[in-house]
């Protein structure tokens, strides 16, 4: 998003992307794959040492959640082929092609800082910490597109309760893996690696914030942030950090990777807000992937009833 603003993207390029997505959809809808996706069957992963051995494995005992939207889900093929994951390149199609080099087992997540029970969790232990739920959420990227994604995960607050934050814990800092061998995009200085994101404690405790380990009922594909990622549906997509290796409870507001890259463009809060434009483009509308006409962007991405109280008394033009 730092590289190109939407208006910089040539018309021909947009046409290419839309042609691609429409073609994908056509192929899916007219092939046996359509039936497979509709019945919840997801293509099994390839065998081998990489995370691909696990991506696509069905997750058992997933509960439905009243926090899911009833909107039409974006097709699996679009969710997994149109990604932002700069560790694997800055264009939307590279993550699906290049993230096979990411090894997602064994994988540990260090939970540390201002807590009574710091621990280095094996990801498989972390996955079992709380019952898995399907959360169908809207995801709105700051670039102006959106999707509806059926995540599988559990509330971040379940982990927070287990590790017992001290009174000094005011924020959470999340860190993605740093390994340029597995993540070739990290060889380029696009961002100050590793990717870092943060939440205020009360935001992190909100039931909408989840740790996601799957989508469409199966283990996350690498390009979507395997083996474990954050999903914060009322904020722009970039807050939903992928492939997490560390969660640190801290007293001071963390500096996020996007704040470091462009502090005038990406604030700490980054709540979806149609009234506060990005300095280089409007945030009033968005294109739902798969639709032709743009739709209005909703305050807090439509989750105002759940989260507006967190920002009472704050000037959201200053705290953007
Ligand atoms: N580590 C990491 N996490 C990341 C990103 C990234 O480049 N690196 N991109 C973000 C952005 S800009 C968006 S829109 C979402 C996209 O998630 P998806 O590809 O699963 O739809 O991931 C976010 N998480
Ligand atoms: Mo994004």
Give descriptors for this structure:
9 helices; 21% strand; 320 residues; five-stranded mixed β-sheet; binds molybdenum atom; alpha+beta; Sulfite Oxidase, Chain A, domain 2; eight-stranded mixed β-sheet; binds the ligand Nc1nc2c(c(=O)[nH]1)N[C@H]1C(S)=C(S)[C@@H](COP(=O)(O)O)O[C@H]1N2
Helix-strand sequence:
HHEHHEEHEEHEEHEEEEHEEH
How much of the sequence lies in strands comes to 15-25%
Total of domains: 1
**Uncertain stretches:** 7-53
Question: What share of the residues lie within helices?
Answer: 10-25%
Question: Total number of β-strand segments?
Answer: 13
Question: How would you characterize the largest beta sheet?
Answer: 8 strands, mixed
Q: Give the count of helical stretches.
A: 9
Architecture (CATH level 2) name: Alpha-Beta Complex
- The CATH homologous superfamily name equals Oxidoreductase, molybdopterin-binding domain
User: What is the third-level CATH name, the topology?
Assistant: Sulfite Oxidase, Chain A, domain 2
Shape: globular
What is the CATH first-level class name? Answer: Alpha Beta
Task: Provide the gyration radius in Å.
Answer: 19 Å
Arithmetic mean of pLDDT: 89
* Euclidean distance between termini CA atoms: 16 Å
Which ligands does the model contain, each kind named once?
A: the ligand Nc1nc2c(c(=O)[nH]1)N[C@H]1C(S)=C(S)[C@@H](COP(=O)(O)O)O[C@H]1N2, molybdenum atom
Secondary structure category: alpha+beta
């Amino acid at each position: 998003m730092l590289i190109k603003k939407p208006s910089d993207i040539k018309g021909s390029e947009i046409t290419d992307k839309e042609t691609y997505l429409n073609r994908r959809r056509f192929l899916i809808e007219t092939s046996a794959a359509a039936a497979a996706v509709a019945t919840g069957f997801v293509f099994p992963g390839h065998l081998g040492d990489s995370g691909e051995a696990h991506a696509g494995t069905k997750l058992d005992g997933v509960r439905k959640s009243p926090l899911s939207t009833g909107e039409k889900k974006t097709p699996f093929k679009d969710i997994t082929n149109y990604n932002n994951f700069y560790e694997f390149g800055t264009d939307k199609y590279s993550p699906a092609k290049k993230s096979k080099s990411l090894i997602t087992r064994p994988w540990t997540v260090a939970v540390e800082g201002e807590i009574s029970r710091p621990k280095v969790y094996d990801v498989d232990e972390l996955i079992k910490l709380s019952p898995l739920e399907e959360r169908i959420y809207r995801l709105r990227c700051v670039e102006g597109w959106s999707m509806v994604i059926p995540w599988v995960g559990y509330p971040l607050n379940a982990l927070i309760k287990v590790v017992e934050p001290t009174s000094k814990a005011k924020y959470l800092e999340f860190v993605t893996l740093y390994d340029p061998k597995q993540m070739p995009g990290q060889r380029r200085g696009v961002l100050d690696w590793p990717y870092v994101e943060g939440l205020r404690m009360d935001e992190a405790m909100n039931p909408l914030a989840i740790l996601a380990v799957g989508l469409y009922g199966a283990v996350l594909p690498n390009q979507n942030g395997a083996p474990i990622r954050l999903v914060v549906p009322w904020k722009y997509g970039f807050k939903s950090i992928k492939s997490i290796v560390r969660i640190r409870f801290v007293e001071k507001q963390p500096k996020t990777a996007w704040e470091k890259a462009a502090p005038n463009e990406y604030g700490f809060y980054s709540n979806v807000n149609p009234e506060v434009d990005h300095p280089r483009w409007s945030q009033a509308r968005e294109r739902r992937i798969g639709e032709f006409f743009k739709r209005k962007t909703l305050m807090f991405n439509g989750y105002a009833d759940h989260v507006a109280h967190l920002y009472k008394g704050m000037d959201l033009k200053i705290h953007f």
